[in-house]
Amino acid sequence: MPELPEVESLSRFLAEQLVGRTVDRVYPVAVHALKTYDPPITALEGRSFDAVTRHGKFLDLTAGDAHLVIHLARAGWVRWTEKMADAPPRPGKGPLALRVRLAADPDGDTGTGTGTGTGTDSGTGFDVTEAGTQKGLALYVVRDPLDVPGVARLGPDPFAPDFTLAAFTELLAGRRSQIKGVLRDQSVIAGIGNAYSDEILHAARMSPYKLATALTEDEIGTLYEAIGTTLADAVERSRGLPLRDLKSEKKSGLRVHGRKGEACPVCGDTIREVSFSSSAMQYCPTCQTGGKPLADRRMSRLLK
């Protein structure tokens, strides 16, 4: 699932490509992914993109007073192309959910700063795709991003100036939930999902089962620093990469998440996993739990 670092990298890439460009045609291929109808998605046609920003794990493409807000869910992605097919896409069972075709730039500028002045770049645009059979991709066209329920309920962004240690300490106060769940709760902190919560807790040398309310002042400070450095490092690793390489870069940069059975890069212990109904978390016993493996709750239920 794309999380804050990947969506941040997507937003930066799309901002470079889209700002100042005009939408020629919009093709909503997977109608089930479209969550709004007023204004219609065709209202984007003829408008120029003014900005591309991010709200947690939501992309926000602004065109005048309209916002195309995209939540990529578990398996969504954005694919940029300089040579888009002329024929409209056909609805079907493929991964394509939305196609946005850009109008030809009079100066021939493709958005990369290398225009030739030929004005022949009408095939430029992007696709929003979703792999797999579990469909969670969501597309919204709204006048205000806060009209999207998921955006309206977001907590503070870890990259925001007001996400200070004091603010983080206040967020944790009185929360008797396990810290893994707190980090993933989008209404507490925006943008962190399953993968980077594993990475942050490993960097902080903290058990995912530890209660947020039980953290000491020093532990809160360590966790706060781990959030900032882990996310910033992930964004920096992605800098300058083409969109097609962002997913593989994420996987290669993870130290514990998705690495069950491998050696911990810090201590050499074997990385363990706890499975849940629809996800799993990974951790290092030596680094995070005093050498004690955590109970796999799914297996525990099966053994009862």
From TrEMBL:
It catalyses: Hydrolysis of DNA containing ring-opened 7-methylguanine residues, releasing 2,6-diamino-4-hydroxy-5-(N-methyl)formamidopyrimidine. InterPro entries: FPG_cat, FPG_N, H2TH_FPG, Ribosomal_uS13-like_H2TH, Znf_DNA_glyclase/AP_lyase, Znf_FPG/IleRS. Its cofactor is Zn(2+). Keywords: DNA damage, DNA repair, DNA-binding, Glycosidase, Hydrolase, Lyase, Metal-binding, Multifunctional enzyme, Zinc, Zinc-finger. PROSITE patterns: FPG_CAT, ZF_FPG_2. Pfam families: Fapy_DNA_glyco, H2TH, zf-FPG_IleRS. Residues 2-93 form the Formamidopyrimidine-DNA glycosylase catalytic domain. This is DNA-(Apurinic or apyrimidinic site) lyase /Formamidopyrimidine-DNA glycosylase. It comes from Actinacidiphila alni.
